[in-house]
Amino acid sequence: MPTELESGLPAFRCDNCGGKWIRGAQYWQWLDEHPNLPERDEDDPSLTLTEPGKHIDCPECRFRMVKYLVGRGFSFTLDHCQGCKGIWLDRNEWEALKARNLHDDVNSMLTAFWQDEAQKEGRKKRMEQIYIGRFGADDYVEIERIRTWLTTRQNKQDLLAYLTDKDPFDV
């Protein structure tokens, strides 16, 4: 069904799944006419996001769409058609991006630079989960506090040597 995501940004909405289809040329034209807004930190907890995880075919030209990580704290992906350049957003993804002023950065999300940063963020989250599993949540918070404190010290190497020495008083 035809809809309008923003003033001057036409799209199509799927009544079955709540997804939205934006034609690439129309998004780029809308983007040219609107200033890039600064990113916000807050999330909207009332939005439920579902990442189907399956690859889909473009509703317009039938090419297999490519998934792009959003990053910036979001775990969902955008689907982009390499053929017609259209963008598929699952239910509430546009609203989640808009709540953080990232709806005007979709074009950037499709770049190698953005994807590298999003992948790095994902690796960091996975490593944090591994460390939390090894240390426990409370100990992980404490060791992160100590790491942060250590980075502010000029004598960091001396402090680390003291901490790792079996018996620093054995001369």
Describe it for me?
With 171 residues, the chain is of the alpha+beta class. It has 6 helices and 6 strands. Strands 1-2-3-6-5-4 form a 6-stranded antiparallel β-sheet. The mean pLDDT is 92.
Spell out the blueprint of helices and strands.
Layout: E1 2-6, E2 9-13, E3 20-22, H1 24-32, E4 66-71, E5 74-80, E6 87-89, H2 93-99, H3 106-109, H4 112-135, H5 137-151, H6 156-164
Antiparallel strand pairs: 1-2, 2-3, 3-6, 4-5, 5-6
Radius of gyration: 22 Å
Average predicted local confidence, pLDDT:
92
Helix content: 25-40%
Task: Give the neighbour order of strands across the main sheet.
Answer: 1-2-3-6-5-4
Listing every helix as H and every strand as E from the N terminus to the C terminus, the arrangement reads: EEEHEEEHHHHH
Q: What global shape is seen?
A: elongated
Structural class: alpha+beta
Low-pLDDT runs of 5+ residues are none
Number of helices: 6
Beta strand count: 6
Strand content: 15-25%
Biggest beta-sheet profile: 6 strands, antiparallel
Distance between the termini: 79 Å
